[in-house]
């Protein structure tokens, strides 16, 4: 971007007078930077403080809150870039429109190709932004224990909380069910979670690839058959959770959703205890709790849970979670 | 190639492409079933008696070997349609005539009767709340409406019986189980129902074919005001 209106014969911009005009050439670059700076200083805080708190996925869980913060940071960085482009376009349209006789072409040609300052600034600024975002993104991924994404069967980043509630998410065409290993391994068609509690979702599938997306919790983890994909979060607030499959998984993929609740610890304890009791007869018939279940590929011939369930002995659960 | 030749080639290829798109839409995307209306057969508010049957192979049509649900229309005729129009906030007394054999469930969670009156089904006259799919003839199919929390196991018949039905609609001369249960429809809306037993024999994990096509092992409760 040139600071002068007219390229010289050698192609370098100057602040010399425009031929045929009176007085020094206007400092276009300085004008554009000023406009851009004012707009950015006004709109960035407006966005962050007025729109930011409403940006999805909200703040129901630690991962949702962190993801919302990340989105807001990205937007605060992106907004000035957007404003820079719009400022330049707007300024160009007003200042260098063709109908203004005697106005020289400000960009293009030799001048644009050889302006070392503009090119260097572009490379340095964009590289700096991208590198900063890479560092920021990596930090946020580690700091939030995977940012709500599935970390596979052996997570690198785990919560430090002493009490983590394990919930197994079982996907199958076309619904999700949930097993609670610390409550006798009962299985429920409803996701229920206690507030203020760290949760480890162990996501697996009984057939094809699905993806467990608990929107308000900002949890998204692929559900692969015979894979225990672990994702962490901590619930912050009570409320409803919408669970959707986010991996195209067959005819009724679009209908593969259900709802859950984050409730008080005492309400969760009551629900878990009551459901454990109410489903005891069926829980006895379920396969022993395992992190994955091996399917029988012979169609409807059952036998989905062989006697050699690959139970992982590395996970040891203590007292029932959470403490009521 | 001359202009006329290039134009002809282009038009032929265009016609083929259009034909493929039309074939795909008609064959795979458009609903293949009609809607069976149960809203006008009885006075407003009166319970609706809904009879269906599950058959191991429909015996006719494009896929005669595919497993399917059939429904008995208010006029008594058995139809191969899986979208049923029901009145809102109305008790539905459902009778399932199960003509297919069974197996252990892929997920025994579906052996528990859920979301219907008393969380109980009446299996051949006896109440059942949990059915062990590893016992007897196992479970052939389920009737489940996920949005309503409904899941009912449909116990399989003896596959070695001499009178196993293989052509729909099946009659009383074939071996069958009768399962009865009731539920109340919610407000107006479309509620998907499906079988949760991967019962499409011959397909990987049993989930292709009839399980992945409309109008066989799944459909909609079209609940209207």
Question: Can you describe what's shown?
Answer:
The complex is a heterodimer of chains A (324) and B (225). Helix content of chain A is 34%, strand content 19%. Chain A is an alpha+beta fold and 324 residues long. Chain A folds into two domains: 116 residues, no CATH class; 120 residues, Immunoglobulin-like (Sandwich). Chain B is built from one helix and 13 strands. In chain B, strands 4-3-2-6-11-7-8 form a seven-stranded mixed beta sheet, with no helix packed on it. Chain B has a four-stranded mixed beta sheet with strand order 1-5-13-12, with no helix packed on it. In chain B, β7 and β8 form a beta hairpin. Classes of the chains: A alpha+beta (324), B mainly beta (225). At the A-B interface, loops of A face loops of B.
Summarize the structure.
The complex is a heterodimer of chains A (324) and B (225). With 324 residues, chain A is α+β, with helices and mostly antiparallel strands.
Portion in helices of chain B: 10-25%
The backbone outline of chain A, from C-alpha atoms, is elongated
The pair of chains with the biggest contact is: A-B, 31 and 40 residues
Largest sheet of chain A: 5 strands, mixed
Whole-number radius of gyration of chain A? Answer: 29 Å
Detail the poorly predicted runs of chain B: none
The residue ranges of chain A in which pLDDT falls below 50 over 5 or more consecutive positions are: 1-21, 297-324
What keyword list fits this structure?
heterodimer; A: 324 residues; alpha+beta; Immunoglobulin-like; 2 domains; five-stranded mixed β-sheet; 6 helices; 19% strand; elongated; disordered N terminus; disordered C terminus; B: 225 residues; mainly beta; seven-stranded mixed β-sheet; 32% strand; globular
Topology of helices and strands:
The complex is a heterodimer of chains A (324) and B (225).
Chain A: H1 28-51, H2 62-95, H3 109-114, H4 116-143, E1 164-172, E2 175-180, E3 186-188, E4 191-194, E5 198-205, E6 210-214, E7 219-223, E8 229-234, E9 239-245, E10 257-263, H5 265-278, H6 280-283
Helix pairs in contact in A: 1-2, 2-4
Chain B: H1 3-29, E1 35-37, E2 48-55, E3 68-72, E4 78-79, E5 83-87, E6 91-98, E7 121-123, E8 126-128, E9 139-145, E10 150-155, E11 177-184, E12 189-194, E13 218-224
Parallel strand pairs in B: 1-5, 2-6, 5-13
Antiparallel strand pairs in B: 2-3, 3-4, 6-11, 7-8, 7-11, 9-10, 12-13
